[in-house]
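Exercise 3.2. Students should predict the tertiary structure of the chain below and write it as structure tokens, then compare their answer with the key that follows.

Predict this chain's 3D structure.
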Amino acid sequence: MTVVNEYLAVGSVFYVAVLVVTIFAFIQEKELKLRLCFYIVSALLLSAPFVAITPYGPRCAFNTVAFIILAAIDVINVVVSNDQSEISNVFEIFGVVSMAFMLVTMGMNGHVNHARVAVIKTQLARHAKVVYVRKLPFEQFLWDSSPARTRFQYSMYKRRMHIQKNQKLIFVPYSQWQSTKLDK
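Answer key:
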């Protein structure tokens, strides 16, 4: 998981750097350039406190990401409206691929999340001392979907799923779930 997070971090920094270079090198319209600078500065100011405050999760990043997306949409709009060449097709293909990727990612997370409720109910009906729950396949996109025992969310998850205090809750990695045979 650490390698994935490192790739995502490097990709994010590269993304913002390319956006800034594009703004200053290719955008000629003064008002648009100011608006894009506002978006970038707003994103940086929203993220700045989280250099010292942790954890920095999806809820914290929402507005920052929204400003970066607004800036990217404005840049893409300028490129597509001013240039009807191959670059327009590249942006359209990239958009379709990105949406398909997000659809698959969130679709798989949603499917597994709904399925694990039924598995928990089945185990509770059998009065299991240990309740096994499948982790989501792409849980890095969600906040604490499989909380650790030491976190407050762990007891909240148990309460929400009606798991008794004396029952142990174990989150099984997505790739190892098939060997448990609990959802059959």
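Discussion points: The CA atoms of residues 119 and 183 lie 6 Å apart. The first strand starts at residue 130 and ends at 134.
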